[in-house]
Design goal:
Structural class: mainly alpha
Order of helices and strands: HHH
Shape: elongated
Radius of gyration: 26 Å
Largest sheet: none
Number of strands: 0
Distance between the termini: 97 Å
Number of helices: 3
Helix content: 40-55%
Strand content: under 5%
Length: about 90
C-alpha cells in the first residue's frame, strides 16, 4: 500500500553567497548553460550590491588611506623627519 506522504517542509531560501559557492564547486567543464547563467547573474548582483552599499563615509580610514599597522607609524615618522630637515 501507499505510505501516507509527510507534508514537505519548505526549504529556506539559499543566500546568493551560498548559491555562488555551490555553483563554483561544480567543475567548469561540467556546468550547464543554465548554471553558467545563474553564476554570472549572482556575481553581477553581488558586485552591484557592493558598489551600491558602499557604506558610511565616516567608516573610511581617516589616515589618508594608509593602513594603520606598525609600518604606517614608521612611514609617518620618516615623513615628519623629512619635513623637519627641509626647514
Amino acid at each position: 500500500m501507499d505510505e501516507p506522504q509527510q507534508p514537505q517542509q519548505p526549504q529556506p531560501p539559499v543566500s546568493p553567497q551560498r548559491r555562488l559557492q555551490e555553483l563554483r564547486a561544480i567543475p567548469e567543464r561540467d556546468r550547464t548553460d543554465a548554471q553558467w547563467d545563474e553564476l554570472n547573474e549572482i556575481e553581477i548582483a553581488l558586485a552591484s550590491a557592493n558598489r551600491a552599499g558602499g557604506g558610511n563615509p565616516q567608516q573610511h580610514r581617516r589616515d589618508g588611506g594608509h593602513g594603520g599597522g606598525p609600518g604606517n607609524q614608521r612611514r609617518q615618522d620618516r615623513q615628519q623627519r623629512g619635513r623637519q630637515r627641509r626647514r
